[in-house]
Design a protein that fits this description.
Radius of gyration of chain A: 20 Å
Shape of chain A: elongated
Number of strands of chain B: 33
Largest interface: A-B, 39 and 27 residues
CATH architecture of the largest domain in chain B: 3-Layer(aba) Sandwich
Number of domains of chain A: 2
Helix content of chain A: 25-40%
Number of strands of chain A: 11
CATH architecture of the largest domain in chain A: 3-Layer(aba) Sandwich
Oligomer: heterodimer
Strand content of chain B: 25-35%
Strand order of the largest sheet of chain A: 6-5-4-7-8-11
Shape of chain B: globular
Largest sheet of chain A: 6 strands, mixed
CATH superfamily of the largest domain in chain B: Class I glutamine amidotransferase (GATase) domain
Largest sheet of chain B: 8 strands, mixed
Structural class of chain A: alpha/beta
Distance between the termini of chain A: 35 Å
């Protein structure tokens, strides 16, 4: 049993019948509760859009293909479910973990748990794993087979590369035409201004955005004593510093970053949920799913 | 200008590197850690790199400066403000060595003695000192004794100066300066002053001894980088009363017999030399001579100005033993009464048994020692002062040494080892040996068994035999030596006709060269007669033959007095010496178990304190240094008669000619300063004109400040860390 499968098992056991609720931007709810204004895979034709990997080939408009040599998907008005896209930060910094595993492992589990819960209640979940570029992209879908693909993609992804979330998020935002839910799982070790700009862009695109900031406790406490050589997990230069001498300054910079991020998220109506790698996953999920 | 008073401790500055090394070692002990949140570290570095570096550098700098300050405090840096040329402004605390010439001549003077005038100068100088100045007081008369530590009690010093009196010591300014330089090393204050308090008499400066003064000047200059006025290059101040014209002064400069061996029962001529050191006309004076305290004669003599006169007293010593002769001038009112008396100790022998070991035939003028035997005992009757026994080498038995005081070897090829050992013991035990060489002498064997690289009884090793194409002439006798006493002033003339055809070159510069005294040299500079003390005895070595084999000296008139002089010296030679200089102690060789029963008294009958000690590796008793001239008496219960010691001041002390200011300054070769009056001292050495001082207090304060700062910075960091 893989780590992710273990997580799934645990999540299943401990989350029980918890349901995912949407907010104001998502007009549709689970089947039978709301009528969606979104185009989807229904019987009432609503238009075309370009084919993207993960689309069901049954909805490919072969006539358009014959005429224009383009792969277009026929879209219909239908009763839709929640369409969520999990953006997983796979940059090198996510590979840090001092006590209970790396931040990326925690993020993987979180993404899988959220995806599983949403699939289980019939919602559609997609995945975008990225660092400086998009490394995996799976459009949201609601089948268990799709979820297994998503899990496989999660397992394939390893942390590496620099953190440049802002342009990647903007790019992802362009690929998801429908309004839905974007879940960003990241340590957010990026320029907060640019990151907030990209989140703002998602909001402009009518996306509900939730940010799960995954951190290690040591990244807050900075417990290092004496001379240390800090080796970056991305492409930063090595730094020789006296941990005792820089601790205070580090904490100040870190807290400033957090404040700016929190203030920025609050300003654009985005929920920022900071979770620690030593924190029980179920608590995070409970906190996230009960959030109004 | 900064000078380090403890320059050897400058090496301590290397400790400055300790904080840096610790810092670098600390930086080398780096643990590596993979870190995700590098952007925050980079961000804080971008904001605070300079501040972090400054904090670290500041702490390192504080610690290094702290160590440097402590190290510098140990080196005692002193700041000197250069004074104007010839200026006398003192620089900081003064380290003064006050060198007092308390020699015999300082008691000269009629209304006021030179010493009283010197005392006033000294007190004036001491008044120019300030609290914290340290002073050492060295007296000419106590140069042989270990000096005390410097004192800070100026009032006590004034009291001590008030108690000082002239002694009978001889002036030796170069030695006094050297002692002062040595004493300066015990001082701690930076501004060093060698103060010479003298009566300004010329003779004691030894200004004609260029070698000594060159050495003194070099030592006064100190190392190249020495700071003028510092302890390695002290300032020299001469305090001398105003020079006065030479006054009338008659002095007894010499007392003694006309021969080296005075024998009991035979009349001896006792000579008293009186010298006139003034220039105000001839002086008539009555000379008295006392033997063992009893006046035996009186003569009135006239002494010409700048010259001398001799009073001769015929006296017969009835019994052998030690006698004390004391000559005095009666009714002589001159500038220096202290030199109107002089004492001498004379050893009187019944007759001296002399053993001649002849390398040839042992009879008549034949053989190697025929002429020598005739010189000592012309009638061969043994009625003179010498009882001569003459044997051949074959007849010589070491047991014969027990019955003689002097043994003479004449051109012996070799001695058997037992005999060599017996001769060695004979010499160490107080015997006298004269060795004459010749064609039969084997230099290799003599060097191997008699010289033994300075360990044998022979004074020195023999070099190559020399036979100059033109025979050499004896010349250059050692003036004043007892063996030449009979020649008087005509010493050099006596040898004019003598020729030395062959001789051995003596290796007087080899082992124990310092103990060898050359008595007579040839005109080519090679030594002819040398002597060396060995234990209680004495050995004389003649480089040529004692007979006519290698020289015609036995045919010259000078031969008889010379040989009698040598034999007499060897026969009456007494060790340890009994004629002493002021400041020397009585030394008497005595076994430990008898030391307690030996007593001694001074000329007034006051007992002297004797302490057991050693002399030349033998048990001996010693007295305190004797300061008063006169005759001292020592009684050994084992001896029938007492032994007399005499203390006499140096005759040169009677010459009162002053040294000129220029001469005195030039001798020091530097900016020596002379003061003649207390007023000049007060004006020139005002204590209020102090210059700079030692800086260690400031450095210590800086170190404390840095320590405080370091604590603050460290606490701030600790607070940040916690």
């Amino acid at each position: 049993m893989t780590h992710l499968q273990q997580v799934q098992q645990e999540v299943i056991e401990r989350l029980g019948n918890l349901s995912v609720t949407a907010r104001q931007a998502v007009e549709s709810v689970l089947a039978g509760q709301h009528r969606s204004v979104r185009r989807g895979l229904s019987v009432e034709f609503a238009g075309h859009r370009e084919y993207q990997p993960g689309d069901d080939l049954r909805h490919l408009d072969w006539l358009v293909f014959a005429r224009s040599d383009r792969y277009d998907i026929r879209q219909y008005e239908e009763e839709t479910k929640l369409r969520a896209l999990v953006i997983l930060d796979a940059s090198g910094s996510m590979g840090y973990g001092a006590v209970t595993g790396t931040k990326f492992q925690y993020a993987q589990a979180l993404a899988a748990a959220l995806g599983f819960l949403m699939i289980r209640q019939g919602d559609a979940v997609g995945l975008a794993a990225c660092d400086t570029a998009i490394r995996e992209f799976i459009l949201p879908a609601g089948t268990m087979a799709h979820f297994l693909n998503l899990l496989a993609a999660l397992e394939r992804t390893v942390p590496g590369g620099d953190t440049h979330l802002a342009p990647v998020i903007s790019e992802v935002g362009g690929r998801i035409p429908r309004r839905g839910l974007v879940i960003l799982i990241s340590d957010t070790f990026d320029d907060p201004d640019r990151l907030l700009e990209s989140i703002q862009y998602l909001r402009y695109r009518k996306q509900e955005v939730r940010v799960f900031q995954v951190l290690d406790r040591q990244e807050l406490s900075f417990p290092f004593r004496g001379m240390m050589e800090f080796v970056g997990l991305e492409s930063e230069p090595r730094l020789k510093l006296d941990g005792d001498r820089v601790r205070e300054h580090y904490r100040r910079v870190f807290e400033e970053h957090q404040k700016r991020l929190q203030a920025g998220c609050h300003a654009c109506g985005v929920r920022l949920d900071t979770c620690w790698t030593d924190e029980e996953l179920v608590h995070v999920l409970t906190r996230a799913l009960n959030w109004q | 200008m900064i000078q380090f008073l403890n320059p050897l401790l400058l090496g301590g500055l290397a400790a400055v590197s300790a904080p840096i090394v610790i810092h670098l070692l600390h930086r080398r002990k780096v643990k590596q850690v993979d870190w995700g949140a590098m952007r925050f570290l980079l961000e804080l570095l971008a904001q605070r790199r300079r501040r972090l570096f400054l904090d670290e550098f500041l702490l390192l700098l504080i610690r290094a400066l702290l160590v440097a300050c402590v190290a510098l405090v140990m080196t005692r840096p002193a700041w000197f403000r250069p004074s104007a040329p010839g200026g006398l402004a003192r620089q900081g605390g003064a380290a003064v060595v006050l060198l007092v010439d308390d020699s015999l001549s300082t008691s000269a003077g009629r209304a006021q003695t030179a010493f009283e005038a010197m005392r006033k100068l000294a007190l004036s100088y001491v008044r120019s000192l300030a609290r914290g100045d340290e002073v050492s007081l060295l007296l000419m008369s106590q140069l042989g004794t270990p000096p005390g530590d410097p004192i800070f009690d100026l009032e006590g010093l004034k009291a001590r100066l008030g108690e000082l009196k002239p002694t009978s010591a001889a002036t030796d300014i170069p030695s006094l300066v050297d002692a002062g330089l040595a004493q300066l090393k015990r001082h701690v204050n930076p501004a060093a002053e060698l103060v010479i308090l003298t009566d300004g008499r010329n003779d004691g400066w030894h200004s004609d001894d260029k070698v000594r003064w060159d050495g003194v000047r070099e030592r006064l200059r100190g190392p190249k980088d020495a700071m003028p006025g510092g302890r390695t290059r002290p300032r020299v101040i001469v305090l001398a009363p105003e020079a006065t014209p030479p006054d009338d002064n008659l002095a007894v400069t010499e007392v003694g017999a006309d021969r080296t061996l005075v024998s009991a029962g035979h009349p001896a001529s006792l000579r008293v030399v009186v010298r006139h050191f003034g220039n105000q006309g001839a002086r008539e004076v009555e000379v008295k001579l006392a033997v063992n305290g009893e006046v035996v004669g009186s003569h009135r003599i006239s002494v010409p100005p700048g010259g001398q006169a001799v009073a001769v007293f015929e006296h017969t010593f009835d019994t052998p033993g030690s006698y004390g002769l004391e000559a005095s001038l009666a009714d002589n009112a001159d500038a220096l009464p202290a030199d109107d008396r002089r004492a001498v100790s004379v050893q009187v022998e019944q007759s001296v048994p002399v053993l001649l070991v002849d390398g040839g035939a042992a009879s008549g003028l034949a053989g190697k020692l025929g002429f020598f035997a005739a010189a000592l005992d012309p009638g061969s009757g043994g009625k003179g002062p010498f009882q001569v026994t003459r044997v051949s080498l074959a007849q010589f038995n070491p047991a014969m040494l027990a019955d003689c005081r002097v043994v003479v070897f004449g051109d012996l090829p070799v001695l058997d080892p037992a005999a060599v050992e017996a001769v060695g013991r004979f010499v160490v035990g107080g015997g006298g040996v004269l060795v004459g060489l010749g064609p039969a002498s084997d230099a290799a064997l003599i060097n191997r068994y008699w010289a033994r690289d300075g360990e044998g009884f022979l004074p020195c090793a023999l070099g190559q035999p020399v036979a100059p194409r033109v025979p050499a002439t004896p010349a250059g006798l050692r003036p004043g030596h007892p063996i030449f006493g009979a020649f008087g002033a005509a010493g050099d003339e006596a040898w004019k006709e003598a020729r030395v055809r062959s001789y051995y070159k003596l290796e007087t510069r080899e082992a124990r060269a310092g103990e060898i005294e050359t008595l007579l040299t040839l005109d080519n500079g090679d030594p002819l007669i040398v002597e060396r003390r060995r234990g209680l005895g004495l050995v004389v070595l003649d480089a040529t033959s004692l007979g006519p084999d290698w020289t015609d000296l036995p045919l010259q008139a000078a031969y008889v007095p010379l040989m009698r002089g040598i034999a007499g010296r060897l026969g009456s030679f007494v060790m340890p010496p009994r004629n002493l200089r002021p400041g020397e102690p009585i030394l008497y060789a005595a076994a430990k178990d008898t030391a307690a029963s030996i007593t001694a008294t001074d000329s007034s009958g006051r007992p002297l304190k004797l302490t057991p000690g050693s002399w030349e590796g033998r048990d001996a008793v010693a007295s305190e240094p004797l300061t008063e001239p006169g005759v001292y008496t020592l009684r050994d219960p084992r001896l029938a008669s007492p032994i007399r010691f005499a203390v006499a001041s140096a005759p040169a002390e009677s010459a009162l000619d002053p040294i000129t200011d220029r001469e005195a300054v030039d001798l020091f070769g530097g900016p020596a300063v002379l003061f003649h009056t207390p007023e000049r001292i007060a004006a020139g050495l005002d204590p209020a004109r102090r210059g700079s001082a030692e800086t260690w207090r400031w450095l210590l304060a800086a170190a404390v400040g840095l320590l405080f700062l370091e604590t603050l910075v460290t606490r701030r960091e600790s607070a940040a860390r916690s």
